[in-house]
Amino acid sequence: MILRNEQTLRVERNRINLLDGDSLHLCKHVGAELRAYTPPAHDAAERPGLLWITEEGEAEDVFLRPGDSYRLRGEGRVVATAWGALLLRVLSPREVAAEAREARRRERKLQPVRNGAGPASGLGSCAA
Hints:
The chain is of the alpha+beta class. The chain has one helix spanning 93-110, and strands spanning 2-4, 15-18, 23-26, 33-37, 50-55, 62-64, 69-71, 78-83, 86-91.
């Protein structure tokens, strides 16, 4: 199976099941992100899948294992081919930016509030 887009990338399916040898051809994709996952029905005894990405204009190919991601850099053609079964998520540049904003917002919420001179404020000195 080969999936292609001819116009500017518009993601309509969040996840794409790729079987061994399936290819995805992309164009007009700058800033999109590919994320590889283990398919839900994956047999633990099977070797995990691998996604081989060739991006026009880039010197080296990229290989993703489940849990890895890759941000596409250019406007040239991209061919992503599965070696083994994989679940692939393609995020548009807009989705990538929204996730980054959300991650920054969560990070700000988790930062401790500092009052006074620091964490030991009001506890006295430990010097002997």
